[in-house]
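We emphasize that the prediction below concerns an isolated chain of 369 residues; any contacts that depend on oligomerization or on bound cofactors are therefore not represented. The input was used exactly as deposited, without trimming of termini.
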Amino acid sequence: MNTHVGTVSGRYYSRQDDGRIRCEVCPRYCRLNDGQRGLCFVRARQGDEIVLTSYGRSSGFCIDPIEKKPLNHFHPGTPVLSFGTAGCNLTCHFCQNHDMSKSRQMDTLADAAPPAALAETAVRLGCTSVAYTYNDPVIFLEYAVDTAIACHEVGVKNVAVTAGYICAEPRAEFYAHMDAANVDLKAFSEDFYRRVTGSQLGPVKETLEYLVRETDVWVEITTLLIPGENDSDAELEAMTAWVVERLGPDVPMHFTAFHPDFRMLDRERTPPETLFRARNIALRAGVRHAYVGNIHHKQAQSTWCAGCGGMLIGRDWHQLSDWHLDDHGGCVWCGTPLPGRFSGPPGDWGRRRERVQIAPVAGPPQPSR
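Result of the prediction step, given as a token string:
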């Protein structure tokens, strides 16, 4: 296992006739002269290759509830060790992690953590999984893949929190090592993707179809609803109809509240009524499990049986209450299976969030309280 921290050789690039090298990790296809960085900031050209400059270096580590990712059908109640790096391959005007994802300073990456150290930390702190999050993990693919391999070797699961903006070949490698993914479906129009995120909707839809149809990765979808941008009935009806038709009714959808941030400080917060309207549109379209997020509302955040309508998992924000699943993940009243990944009784991590310092492999990690 690679214990290096710093710059490593990257994968997925080609040499162009004009002497530039084209990065082929994501559909942005940055064409670089020697010494140039891609838009993501962490992938750069050095000589005749593309390198990852942030291998083994992170912008910080936290233990979160798995529901914060958000994943409601993946080992509920369990703690997940979350981390990210600097940079991102999208330019979202509303980015709520912009202090990390938009950083152009390598001193943002203050915490060193080779893959083996991350895996050992997860085990010692009792984390069921590791989440690659805060910025998009596809841009630090080599680091993420090596960490995922190290985690699997010690029985820790891997979770990708991603915008799904990745090319086909690296997508297959990346997700071969993931157990779950929450994919941001940021809107359902090419105009929004181009104007607000600097990317395209098409590749995100391709990633979602690939994950659901061709892998065993557990998938949930999140859409941050921004007033006046992506919250119309027509757009939500088109989005949810596409999810049911192309991905199936069992893929959970999360509709979360926007707050003014980064370059969208002039927008209002998302009213709770907008979240409830989006959830109702999804349910009418045939989505069996639709949730609201970033507000308190037990009914709209709990999990309900698609068979008898009983409450299977009571949930308010990230705190679990009721639990009515049998040992096989089915409804205790009617036996209808609940789609997802479950392993007996729920965890009891609750809403806690703890910052963590990653110690070298030889020494124990210490939570920062």
